[in-house]
Amino acid sequence: MKYKVAALHELRKPFKIEEFDLPEVSGEQVLVKTAGCGLCHSDLHIWLGEVAVAPRFPLVLGHEPSGYVAAKGGGVPESIRVGMPVLVNGGYYRRENIYSLRGANQLADLEAQMWAGGIHVGCYAEYFLVPSYRYLVPAEGLEDLDKASVLSDAGLTPYRAFKHAMAILQARQYAEPGDIVVVVGVGGLGIFGAQYVSRLAPHLDLVLADVRDEALEFAGKFARPLALINARRENPLEAIKKTAHDRKVVAVLDFVGSSKTVSTYIKALSPGGVYVLIGLAEPEATIPIFDTVAQEYAVLGSLWGSIGDLYEVAGLAKRGLVDYRGVVTKRWRLDEINEAFMQMEKGTQLGRMVVSFS
Amino acid sequence: MKYKVAALHELRKPFKIEEFDLPEVSGEQVLVKTAGCGLCHSDLHIWLGEVAVAPRFPLVLGHEPSGYVAAKGGGVPESIRVGMPVLVNGGYYRRENIYSLRGANQLADLEAQMWAGGIHVGCYAEYFLVPSYRYLVPAEGLEDLDKASVLSDAGLTPYRAFKHAMAILQARQYAEPGDIVVVVGVGGLGIFGAQYVSRLAPHLDLVLADVRDEALEFAGKFARPLALINARRENPLEAIKKTAHDRKVVAVLDFVGSSKTVSTYIKALSPGGVYVLIGLAEPEATIPIFDTVAQEYAVLGSLWGSIGDLYEVAGLAKRGLVDYRGVVTKRWRLDEINEAFMQMEKGTQLGRMVVSFS
Amino acid sequence: MKYKVAALHELRKPFKIEEFDLPEVSGEQVLVKTAGCGLCHSDLHIWLGEVAVAPRFPLVLGHEPSGYVAAKGGGVPESIRVGMPVLVNGGYYRRENIYSLRGANQLADLEAQMWAGGIHVGCYAEYFLVPSYRYLVPAEGLEDLDKASVLSDAGLTPYRAFKHAMAILQARQYAEPGDIVVVVGVGGLGIFGAQYVSRLAPHLDLVLADVRDEALEFAGKFARPLALINARRENPLEAIKKTAHDRKVVAVLDFVGSSKTVSTYIKALSPGGVYVLIGLAEPEATIPIFDTVAQEYAVLGSLWGSIGDLYEVAGLAKRGLVDYRGVVTKRWRLDEINEAFMQMEKGTQLGRMVVSFS
Amino acid sequence: MKYKVAALHELRKPFKIEEFDLPEVSGEQVLVKTAGCGLCHSDLHIWLGEVAVAPRFPLVLGHEPSGYVAAKGGGVPESIRVGMPVLVNGGYYRRENIYSLRGANQLADLEAQMWAGGIHVGCYAEYFLVPSYRYLVPAEGLEDLDKASVLSDAGLTPYRAFKHAMAILQARQYAEPGDIVVVVGVGGLGIFGAQYVSRLAPHLDLVLADVRDEALEFAGKFARPLALINARRENPLEAIKKTAHDRKVVAVLDFVGSSKTVSTYIKALSPGGVYVLIGLAEPEATIPIFDTVAQEYAVLGSLWGSIGDLYEVAGLAKRGLVDYRGVVTKRWRLDEINEAFMQMEKGTQLGRMVVSFS
User: Fold this and answer.
1) Percentages of chain D per state (helix, strand, coil), in multiples of 5
2) Scanning every residue of chain C, which has its alpha carbon at the shortest distance from the alpha carbon of D297?
């Protein structure tokens, strides 16, 4: 049996829609029939050759999937049933180590190139093979399953970042009601970040910063921001200070990750504040040593999310605490993928786009 | 009644030994007869005019004190007795806020200029006035009380830094027995840092790095380092990797805090590792965004220590778990303070020096 | 100058309204003109002689105050202004120790009998003296300041309990969206407990349990309970199980604290669940050893709240996240205090009552 | 091919040495050639019929194993090599859930009866089958591998309990150097508990309590106890108070778990102290509600240990921080197992016994 795939044979060239043979499943493996595959800028970076991993061609990209269990190996428990809707955590790892044993599978084995597409799932395809049922998260109750695919990365990554920030704030106990969290960069991920702050930390206030008015406005609809700051038009530090008045800025979630965002927004933090880096726009950033020490800042990197984190994100979505359907503003068919990538490269689309198979 | 003080009337000029009037004590105030006052590079930086705080002259420096209660105000509890040996936490703050209420008095009110010497105690003097008995830590059982003065900063600051690192490691649970902590910079503070790692985290191994062989050797006597790395003679990253072999580097305690130390040693960290910044050698440092995110590094600033932290340091010293007497390699008399500062500026002295009043 | 006080000269006898001389204030002391003083069952227990502390007569009870700064000693900072509205944390302690230094003033010195009324503030009076401005929490922006008095205990105690529970859940990370917290006992404190769960932990669901239908219904209006369980009419464990279905019960907040509540509701917990004891209805409780071990339960006592906790509660109230005005269902005048105590002893009043001075 | 097994066909009857067929291995399974199998009282309780799990006969007990990889299925990674020495965590679970995803596999699926012997591994046999390589912990460098078997339970269980206690103490920060941990019950597990306190928490002091002088003396050799308390001969509370003098008792690790131990030793705790329950001697215990609340005690159950915990225990053993060889005081051959159980029932053996296959 055959299935359609968007295959890449050379970087920076168009994808070709080809037919592959459906793989056999054995052991813990699960074959998933794709419902949706979110279009993520990481794929664009790979396509552009900006990622240091040597690709094996034909390359099948896509790591933000949802789908239905189509077939399962003999080592898969009964609770995983054929036809069951699932999200999939693509943080596949080769062997147990202290990270996987502590529930951080996505940190477990960074060099791993287990599957087509480097670290990727390969869901720009009608089917994709998951190495173990352990990476599946039940998705019953999630409407528009194709759109729910974005939870597997765009929804997941900010959730872990948010939890990192909250864990520091909870341990230090310096944050007071009304204190402020700044979300920097309100693209696909930032919109989710804003939602988590507004809905899961109601004692804190939210400020959104970006360089695009329309993105700020769009993101603002998903949360309850105190202020929208266009860092191109106004001095963001002054704008934050004005908004904050006598309240503290206890956390920044930086979904851009450029030299400029880091060196700018870290200065907004109050003593004991936490700066979470998620974006990867540039290779390096400069931090102020004196302020970091004298104000005991915590600068934390946050990577994607673990399987356990994805369980929680799915749970929040089922509970109506995360709006993912509104975030997805465009559905593409698989054979439109080249057009979709061009659109992604332009960077003007608000929210998130998916390749939909429904 | 009069007492002797090393007074500064102009930056970068010699101290003059002068006589001041003993102040009256009232309320919660306590007058302490100085036993020792540790010579700290922060004083040198103030003296050199490198600190942005506008000094009020005559300036009395010194913020690493030990001494005996000499007089107390009416609002001081009975448990504080005249003659009692004490350490003093110089993190005086003006009014309660969320930081002091959460036990981080040294973060409470950074702009405070309550006393002669900016944020300083002013213990280069036969007596000094403490604004409240709350800053005193009982020091019974600490031999050589003049030397014990170094616990109030050189012993305290690395302890808080060590606790910051351990809290992250404890929460994440990625550290395994035999994993490594690197102490960068083994001057007065680094020697204490090395002791805390060796004695309070016996499941971890220790590597010391510096650019001076004699400092490395001296520090090595206080701990059980796996390796001494002279970063001037060998590539420190390679040396660490060779020493670590298949073990992880889970933490770096950086007592230098230069652009070079940060950008070098952060690369030694394993995923989930923690980099604690304590030193303030330079204003800025560059961190790698990709590694920080992809490996979920935590970069934490750590400032001095709270009163509660100093209680714990004093307890460790009483228990024989911190050697402070060996760290103090030179005692000066108050009237030798100019010579002492010249020696400090040269930077060749191993360990820590104190002005001793005994 | 004189002020009116409800003085007790013998246990179990009526209070007498008497006039006392206004005290002088000195040092850090602050005299507060009472706005409201919440009627708390602890006062009733003292009045009934059920508390092991030997009272000194005349006894002035009342430890849940709000008011206005009327006078201040010379050691009180400028930021505390005469006329300023305040809440007061009554956890006065005699001297610093590790508990106060770590921000848990209410644990610092349990035997303390510093003031009239044992551990109590003595706010059944027109004025009361606070030993230090440090116990004051600014209350600007809190409407109906007399009613806001209930935040100082009825609002504070459940907040700390809630935070204890959340800290364990956050550290363990077993709780999933939709999991359940059971609040047992929905008197004055339980209503606040229910509010914190509903508003600050929106990812969790809430179940209320009590033995009074009208109390359940009243409390239910302040939160979004999934179910109201009358433990007198139905088997509470079965009712919880039915409500929870396939979701876990991750925490119980027990505001009753009887042998029966503990041994009943602890069985509802899922593995890793946390049982917070707040109520003191009976001296002892029986816990199942096997379940506690095999399911790694955490049973935590929680006492009142610290000054820092009260800052946060005041902040939540200002932010509209805690409804205290609706909780106060009855205002008494000071000269009605005997009637008020009789009403409290009957136990039929819903919500909380205050003695109001406005 | 055949292998020898100590098979039980009826409770409370002698084991019979029988020959079973070696199983095929497939998928993630690993066949382990037993080196040692620790004799644990849990086995005795099953044998006596005191455990509520309905056994399936023939029953093969033993859940504290060490051994060598003998064969592996096709789904086992290369890093698991035939001949490799291993410890095995017997906390097998059927399917992922939030507990396994958060690294607490031993909590994941309590009802599981996957293998011969209920929740047990079945290592009273020359070989035993492990359902997945994930339960294996590399044991290179552990001398006397048969004796190292005791690390898989007797060494593991107290380690997790110790970590539970330390996590609370670290979060609360009330413990000061010189404060005391009491280990109650110094049988096989308690000796390990004492070691962890002495070696991994050198800032704390240790008190051992038991009802047998010879057990106290034996255990005392593995640690640095401040006092040995025979609770049969002296009032343990008074003895602890006398030893503690002005220091706090911050934790109790109770390896007995009887009504008496809990109600006795909980009273020794200082405010904020933690009581960890590990032993299961009796079904219920009574705790004092007032003290638990007013002193904010934490009572925590602790169950066995996770795979990650066993990694750490193995690491500590390799590092010489846990003495397991001295704890094993007797080796039995498999055909002596009935004699061994009689000896275990007598309860006079100090330390731990193993069935050895070397």
Assistant:
1) 30, 25, 45
2) C301
Nearest to A315 among C178, C315, C316 (CB): C178
Q: What angle do CA C290, C296, C300 make, to 5 degrees?
A: 105
- Residue A7: strand, helix, or coil: strand
Contact check, Cβ <8 Å, B283/A290: yes
Strand partners, C130: C30
| Amino acid type, B217 | E
3-state DSSP call for residue A207? strand
Residues B274, B300 contacting (CB under 8 angstroms) = yes
Rounded Cα distance between B95 and B206, Å, is 40
C-D contacts at Cβ under 8 angstroms: 142
Tens digits of per-residue pLDDT, D31-77? 999 999 999 998 998 899 887 667 778 889 999 999 999 999 998 98
Matching residue, tokens 């900072």: C77
Tell whether pTM > 0.90. yes
Alpha helices, DSSP H only, in D201-287?
Answer: 213-220, 236-244, 259-265
Instruction: Tell which residue, A329, A238, A262, has the closest CA to residue A39.
Output: A329
Alpha carbon A346 to its chain centroid, in Å, reads: 20
pLDDT band at D272 (very low <50, low <70, confident <90, very high): very high
Region at A55 (left for phi over 0; alpha for psi -120 to 50; beta for the rest)? beta
Helices within D177-330 (DSSP H only): 188-200, 213-220, 236-244, 259-265, 289-294, 307-318
Residue-by-residue pLDDT tens, chain C, 358 positions: 999 999 999 999 999 999 999 999 999 999 999 999 999 998 998 899 887 667 778 889 999 999 999 999 998 989 999 999 999 999 988 888 899 999 999 998 754 444 334 445 799 999 999 999 999 999 999 999 999 999 999 999 999 999 999 999 999 999 999 999 999 999 999 999 999 999 999 999 999 999 999 999 999 999 999 999 999 999 999 999 999 999 999 999 999 999 999 999 999 999 999 999 999 999 999 999 999 999 999 999 999 999 999 999 999 999 999 999 999 999 999 999 999 999 999 988 999 999 999 8
D185: helix, coil or strand?
Answer: coil
Contact (CB<8Å) C315/A200: no
Both structure tokens of C170: 């956050």
Interface of chain D toward chain B, CB-CB under 8 angstroms: 103, 166-167, 170, 173, 176-178, 199-200, 202-203, 308, 311-312, 315-316, 318-319, 321
| pLDDT beneath 70, residues of chain A | 52-53, 110-120
Token representation of residue D332: 């039995």
For residue A244, which of A256, A254, A252 has the smallest C-alpha distance? A252
**Closest CB from B77, B98, B306 relative to C95:** B77
**Which domains, from first to last, does chain C contain?**
2-152+305-356 (3.90.180.10), 157-301 (3.40.50.720)
Would the CB atoms of B203 and D177 count as touching at under 8 Å? no
Nearest CA of chain B to the CA of A93: how many Å?
A: 14
Give the residue numbers in C contacting B (CB under 8 Å), as ranges: 27-28, 74-75, 77, 79, 94-96, 98, 101-103, 133-134, 171, 306-308, 311
Asked if D317 and D324 count as a contact pair (C-beta separation under 8 A), the reply is yes
The span from the CA of C147 to the CA of C153, in Å, is 12
Measured between CA atoms, the residue of chain C closest to residue B75 is C27
Task: Report the complex ipTM.
Answer: 0.96
Question: Which residues, other chains included, contact A111 with Cβ-Cβ below 8 Å and sequence gap of 6+?
Answer: none
* Nearest CA among C194, C107, B262, A315 for reference residue D97: A315
> How far is Cα C271 from Cα D300, in angstroms, rounded to an integer?
12
Q: Which residue of B has its CA nearest to D321?
A: B203
